[in-house]
Fold these 3 entries.
Entry 1:
Amino acid sequence: MPDPRLMISVSGIRGRVGFGFNPTVVASYAAAFGAWARAAGGARSVVLGRDSRVTGPLFHSVACAALQSVGVDVIDLGLTTTPTLQMAVEHHSAGGGLCITASHNPVEWNALKFIGPDGLFLDAAAGTAMRSLIDGGIPYATWDKLGVVTQDAGAIARHLDAVLALPYVNADAIRARKFSVAYDACRGAGGAIIPELLERLGCAVHAINTETDGRFPRPPEPVPENLGDLERLVLESGADVGFATDPDVDRLAIVANGGNAIGEDYTLAFACRVVLRHRKGHVVANLSTSQVVDDAVRAAGQKLIHAPVGEVNVAQRMRAEGAVVGGEGNGGVILPELHLGRDAPLAVALTLQLLVDDPRPVSTLVADSPRYVIIKDKLPRTDGPLDGAYAALQAAFPDASAGTDDGLRLTWSDRWIHLRPSGTEAIIRVIAEAPTRDGAAELIARGREAVAGVS
């Protein structure tokens, strides 16, 4: 049985270092993944990389040895971003990819993200098959069949080249605008890629926390309450826009020219506005995404399809629907023409392209859009199932349309509430949106009552 202190989900396996997550766990899971990748896809190689976390080099060494121990040839990216690694899996036609990152979790956490040969995170079935090897016996290689290690120092450059070559990104037009951009990397892996992208796009860059040492100066999740330093930097530098990324650089948050963080949902809404100008088709977003994305898609005359929370769920639905763009309301943008994964460098380029296409300031773009207030709350995880909480919440709002694809989502014409257990933290997420803060807060309060009634 896995250690109950570990979080196991479609996002991989994560935990607090020294409290469930340790070198033994990393060695077992990395070896199991390597054996699964060889058996499932037939390719002998696996791409390996890590974000900037303090514990990253330690677990990187452990994972590298574990992969070799099952006969896997390791293509080592070293310090990198999750989307860069996903693209490298496809570039090398590898059997899979292993990224050592706990994404937005605090500094004491680390994690393994497992990527299949198609560049997508493992789905539930593949993850179950991979983990079964831990209990059933990992097929270690003999001395003469151990894997070898090669370095790939060009992955980030290839990633940036691919973003700048997209048909939706007019790099020359962006350079001509000479944007002033503020950026906060939070000492994550973004320091190794975002400033270079901005410079290649002709921007004047005002950056903080670009050291890639993983010593986060603030909580690393790029939500508005954590972006005070970036807001001040935007004001002091007179920047046209501010960007913040999470430690593994698959999420992008935006600060408007007035120095106000506008919320991560606008990242996807802005990307949809750019892409849908050029290509018509469905858009896929997760169930916790703001209505600002609905509005952007509707304004283009297209259809928005909801998928359960989790990048792999969105990516698979995008592939099934032939969606032209999609993502999650946490600042994650997915463009199939680049790869089927959330990608902050992509989101940076598309946001700057929007400011070329529509020269109004970011603050005006937001002010001229329909207004909603979204509140994202967290509650401690209860021991038992949440069925009772779902039933209580649904009974409290019999007039709402109920969806049960991922927890419980109640929807009205102008508001919604989503209650679900997190796959990345030991919490219950309660997210609500309404035209006013009071309306959203009332929904959150009712969600809290429903959970309290069964805890």
Entry 2:
Amino acid sequence: MNDSDITTLMKEHGIRPTANRIIVAKALLEGRRPLTMSELEERIGSIDKSGIFRALTLFKEHLLVHTLEDIEGVRYELCHSHDHTIDNDMHMHFHCEQCGETICLEDFSIPEVQLPEGYLMQSATFVLKGICPKCRKHLG
């Protein structure tokens, strides 16, 4: 996905694409996994923490990012939904308890849950925990 694609995705989500917002979105995309605020700061370097946080807050309000929590705190990932009114890119994640990495399992949808009458689900976080293949190989 290039800058033009990112700009288009932002516009589809009702976000005005500024230089800083494009940089933050690109960092999320290039991360290839959900990233913490610290990881984003380290990757970007040219934008201070408050600027990154403002972009992420706006992205979350417009459903351009997913957030999930693991042992290291909140992680962010770019949502590939092309709709700012519904998140149709919800998927599972896997957190390796050995190396600490959290990865997307994009081919595995979050199971449908029947909520009691009157409840409206707007998002869901589904994190499986265990040992990733790389770490498992080292365990013998």
Entry 3:
Amino acid sequence: MATDVKRNTNGLKQHAEIKKRLSLEKVEQAVQKMIKNKEKINFNAVADASGVSKSYLYKNEDVRERIVQLREQQEGLPSPKQMKTEMTNKSKDILMAAKNKKIKQLEEELLSIKEELKNYGD
């Protein structure tokens, strides 16, 4: 009763290839977006942003190397949160002066408008 049955696995192979390609595209898009937004790149963040599992990221050699490389590049860079807290007093003073100048300008404009309204009613 030996039957020579050849299994048709072409559909499974095609589906696996499509799924692999889509996963790589998701990861690439997520990494590009994270770079653009200056977000921290690590395995957890990429997995969350791309919707793929962390195990997928670790198992795929190219993806793993890219994430490790990007993570190492970011180590020396301050995060946006650090940059904000490290703002110097001088830059804060400059911002305050600019805001005060704008407030004064708006107050003068308001007085001018009030004066026009007062004269308009007469």
